[in-house]
Specification:
The protein has about 130 residues and is α+β, with helices and mostly antiparallel strands. The chain has helices spanning about 20-25, 40-45, 125-130; strands at about 5-10, 30, 55-60, 65-85, 85-100, 105, 115-120. The chain has one domain (about 5-130): ph1033 like fold (Roll), CATH 3.10.590. It contains three helices and seven strands; from the N terminus they run βαβαβββββα. The longest helix has 7 residues, at about 20-25. The two termini are about 20 Å apart.
């Protein structure tokens, strides 16, 4: 089976409502704070993520930046439906293989909460997910 590669965020509201990166690493998970009703396009992508897929948590480097910081790389181990803050969300249980990175890579348009899937043989994907 071929796994998919995704770039995901860990800040709410463009960073204005907090950075939850440390919680994601500590609790071995990732989830998007948007509900399906709030961001249907993002939820279409979320629904494509499967066990075994690779996630890279990225951070924006400021308006107009041409690079993003890759903060962690991991593998989805389980997926569950949860209710949080009155929202129905999906939580992805993660094995954070590289939990504390500071790897600058070209942004390649990875500015939304979730971007992908990226092709496994793409040079950018290899740069982001290399161990």
């Amino acid at each position: 089976m071929t796994h998919q590669y995704w770039a995901v965020g860990a800040t709410w509201n463009g960073g204005r409502d907090g950075d939850v990166f440390d919680d994601f690493i500590r609790f071995g998970c990732w989830y998007c704070g948007w509900s399906q009703e709030e961001q249907p396009d993002q939820y279409e992508l979320i629904n494509q993520i499967c066990v075994g897929d690779r996630l890279a948590i990225k951070k924006m480097m400021g308006q107009g930046a041409t690079e993003v910081m890759i903060r962690a790389v991991g593998i989805v181990t389980d997926i569950e439906e949860i209710h949080m803050d009155g929202k129905h969300l999906k939580r992805f249980h993660m094995n954070w293989v590289l939990p504390k990175l500071n790897r600058l890579v070209p942004a390649k348009g990875a500015f939304k909460s979730i971007q992908g899937p990226y092709a496994p043989d793409d040079a950018w994907t290899r740069q982001v997910f290399q161990l």
